[in-house]
Amino acid sequence: MLVTVEANHVIRTPRRDRAFFGTGDLFSALFLAHYLDGRDPQRALARSVAGLDVATAITQAAGTVDLALIPNLDAIVHADRPA
């Protein structure tokens, strides 16, 4: 959820049936990077959620506890979802 002076934005993603470690840190880093890259807050939120969804899907498929970031960094950073 994103609340700005102009509007409120909510993006939903599928719920995964397990816990992940590092999702808050990853989301914060993605949002800041996308926002500072000149994107508006809504677009930064959409891209951050998309990247987090990619990271958790890949990690779940790999069966690891920690997010599988390094080998999938390009897919995570460049994930896109319509704003």
Kindly summarize this structure in a few lines.
This protein has a two-stranded antiparallel sheet. Helix content is 49%, strand content 5%. With 83 residues, it is mainly α.
Give the helices and strands, then pairings.
Elements: E1 2-3, E2 8-9, H1 23-36, H2 41-62, H3 73-77
Helix pairs in contact: 1-2
Outline the structure in words.
By secondary structure, the protein is mainly alpha-helical. Helix content is 49%, strand content 5%. The chain is built from three helices and two strands, in the order ββααα. The protein has helices at 23-36, 41-62, 73-77, and strands at residues 2-3, 8-9. The chain has a two-stranded antiparallel ribbon with strand order 1-2. β1 (2-3) and β2 (8-9) form a beta hairpin. The longest helix is centred in the middle third of the chain and has 22 residues, at 41-62. The protein is globular and about 40 Å long. The model has no long low-confidence stretch (mean pLDDT 91).
